[in-house]
UniProtKB/TrEMBL annotation:
Signal sequence segment: none
The species this protein was found in: Treponema ruminis
Protein name per UniProt: HNH nuclease domain-containing protein
Superkingdom of origin organism: Bacteria
Lineage of origin: Bacteria, Pseudomonadati, Spirochaetota, Spirochaetia, Spirochaetales
One family name in Pfam for this protein: HNH_3
Domain HNH nuclease: 427-465
Length: 484
C-alpha cells in the first residue's frame, strides 16, 4: 500500500533540517518523487536515485535499488542532508548518465519520467489535462502493475476550477518490440484489466489509493502546478466518471507497414476478446500535441479510430507513378505480353468450398475482424480472400457474372448476410483500412476479380484507378493526376 505515516508527513512538512532537500527535489525537474509504503522514492531518468524511509520512528536515506549506486543506508541528520544535496545527488546523477539505463527497459522508464515532468513539473505543466499521480504502480492486493496512474482535469480557459472527476490508467509501450512480447505484452495487460474490473472492491480500492496519493502530493507540493492549491483535493465522491485506459506507443516505427499490420491485427483481436474492458473503460490511444510528452484530452483518440488509422490507405500519386509500370505490365487475362486465359477453377481452392470442408486456418493465413465497421461486426476476413460470418467460412462465387466475387446468396447460414457487397471490399476493409465513401477504389493488381488475396489488392484514388484501366502513358501521368 502506497502510504506514509502521519509522523512521516509531519517530518516532511515541518522539519526545518529536511527542507533544503525537499526544495531541491521540488525545483529540479529532472527528479521525480513517488510515494511508496513508508518511504519516498526519488527517480532520475527513470532510475531510483535514493529513498527517504521511515523505520521505527527514525528516518533514513536508503540505498537505491540500482546496482550502479553503491552507498549504504544512513540515518538522516543535518550533515547527511547537506551531503545529499551538495555531493551525493550530483555524483549519482553522473553515474547514471554514464552507465545507467541501457536497453529498452531503461528507455521506457526514462520516457515514463519525461511524461511526469511535462505534465506535473515543467512551467507549461499547468496547461495540460492530466496529472500523473504514480508510476510503476505495483500492488500485490490488486494483483496488477500499472505504468502510470493519472487523474484527468480538462483544462478550460485559464484555470481548473473543479477537482478531477476521471481516473486515467496509462500503459506505455516503448518501441515496436514491446507491444506483443512476453508477460508485459499489451494483450496480457487487457487480461489483467478484465480480471481486475470484475472485482468492484479492488476498483474502489484503486480509486481510494489515487485520492490519497494525489491529495498528499498536493499537500507536499510535489505536483508543481500553480493551479493546484491545498484545497484542490479529490473527495470521496469524485472520480465517478467512466475511467480512461490510455495506451501510449512511444518511438514506434510508423513506417514499418508489416509491423503496422501486426499491430492492427493485435488490436482487433484485443477488441473482440476483452469486451468488458471496453464496456467499463473509455479506451484511448495517446498522440502527441505536435511534439513532446504533454498530455491533452483532445489528442487522446478513441481506440477504434486509432485502429482504423493504422493501415496505410492506398498509394500517394508519387508512389503510384513509381509503381505504374509494374502494375501495367502484369500478364493478366486483360493485357500483358502473354495474356493469360483465365480459369475460374484455378482459384476455387482459395475461395470456393463448402462450409464444413475447411474449418481451420490455412498455413500462413491471417484473419482480421470487421468489428470496427458498422453493420459488419460479425464478419472476419482472411489474407487469402476468405470470409467468415459468425466464425463460419462462407462460400463465394460470381453469381451475377460481373467478374467479381460475392457471398453465397442461398441463405445456407444463420444470420443476415450481405450478398451484395463485393468480397474484395470486405478484404480491403479488414487489411487496408478501407471504409465506405472514403474516396478509394480497390484495384486487383492482376486485374483478376476472382483473386481477392491481400497481396493482389491495393487502394487507389479514383483518378489513379482510371489511369490504370485507360492505359494512360506514364509520361502523362503527373499532369493527368493533377487535373481537377
Amino acid at each position: 500500500m502506497r502510504k506514509i505515516s502521519d509522523a512521516f508527513k509531519n517530518y516532511l512538512t515541518n522539519n526545518e533540517d529536511i527542507r533544503p532537500l525537499l526544495e531541491q527535489i521540488k525545483t529540479d525537474s529532472t527528479l521525480d518523487c513517488e510515494i511508496r509504503e513508508n518511504k519516498l522514492q526519488i527517480y532520475y531518468r527513470g532510475a531510483e536515485l535514493f529513498s527517504i524511509e521511515e523505520k521505527s520512528g527514525k528516518f533514513y536515506f536508503t540505498k537505491s535499488g540500482n546496482s550502479i549506486i553503491k552507498e549504504k543506508n544512513e540515518e538522516i541528520c543535518k550533515e547527511a542532508i547537506r551531503d545529499m544535496v551538495d555531493i551525493t545527488i550530483p555524483k549519482r546523477k553522473n553515474l547514471l548518465d554514464l552507465y545507467g539505463q541501457n536497453g529498452p527497459e531503461g528507455s521506457e522508464r526514462e520516457s515514463q519520467q519525461l511524461i511526469v515532468r511535462e505534465n506535473n513539473l515543467n512551467l507549461k505543466a499547468e496547461e495540460t489535462d492530466y496529472y500523473i499521480v504514480d508510476i510503476e504502480n505495483v500492488d500485490s492486493y490488486l494483483g496488477l502493475r500499472f505504468d502510470l496512474l493519472a487523474v484527468k482535469t480538462k483544462h478550460d480557459g485559464k484555470d481548473r476550477t473543479t477537482p478531477p472527476k476521471k481516473l486515467a490508467i496509462m500503459e506505455l509501450k516503448y518501441s515496436d518490440d514491446s507491444v506483443d512480447s512476453g508477460e508485459s505484452s499489451l494483450e496480457n495487460h487487457f487480461i489483467d484489466l478484465s480480471n481486475f474490473l470484475t472485482d468492484e472492491t479492488k476498483y474502489f480500492e484503486l480509486k481510494a489509493q489515487i485520492r490519497y496519493l494525489f491529495n498528499l502530493k498536493c499537500e507536499l507540493g510535489i505536483i508543481n502546478k500553480p493551479n493546484v492549491k491545498n484545497d484542490f483535493v479529490i473527495k470521496e465522491n469524485d472520480l465517478a466518471e467512466k475511467p480512461e485506459y490510455i495506451i501510449i506507443f512511444a518511438n514506434y516505427n510508423v513506417n514499418d507497414l508489416k509491423q503496422n499490420q501486426n499491430l492492427y491485427n493485435l488490436l482487433i483481436k484485443i477488441r473482440n476478446k476483452y469486451p468488458l474492458v471496453f464496456d467499463k473503460m473509455d479506451v484511448r490511444v495517446a498522440t502527441s500535441a505536435f511534439m513532446g510528452y504533454a498530455l491533452y484530452a483532445d489528442y487522446m483518440i478513441p481506440y477504434d479510430d486509432f485502429v482504423n488509422s493504422l493501415l496505410k490507405k492506398g498509394l500517394t500519386n508519387k508512389e503510384f507513378i513509381e509503381q505504374y509500370t509494374e502494375l501495367q505490365e502484369k500478364n493478366t487475362w486483360h493485357y500483358g505480353n502473354e495474356k493469360k486465359l483465365f480459369n475460374k477453377k484455378d482459384y476455387e481452392k482459395i475461395y470456393n468450398h463448402g462450409m464444413n470442408e475447411i474449418s481451420k486456418d490455412l498455413p500462413d493465413e491471417k484473419w482480421a475482424s470487421l468489428s470496427h465497421i458498422k453493420g459488419y461486426s460479425k464478419y472476419s476476413v482472411s489474407s487469402f480472400g476468405r470470409v467468415k460470418f459468425n466464425e463460419i467460412v462462407l462460400e463465394q462465387g460470381d453469381y451475377n457474372n460481373s467478374g467479381y466475387l460475392k457471398l453465397d446468396p442461398r441463405n445456407l447460414y444463420p444470420g443476415k448476410i450481405d450478398h451484395e457487397i463485393n468480397v474484395y471490399t470486405l478484404i480491403a476493409m479488414g487489411f487496408l483500412g478501407k471504409t465506405f465513401n472514403d474516396g478509394y477504389d480497390v484495384h486487383h493488381k492482376d486485374n483478376n476479380g476472382y483473386d481477392c488475396r491481400l497481396e493482389n489488392l491495393v487502394l487507389l484514388t479514383r483518378k489513379q484507378h482510371i489511369a490504370i484501366h485507360s492505359n494512360i502513358p506514364k509520361k502523362d501521368l503527373k499532369s493527368f493526376l493533377s487535373e481537377e
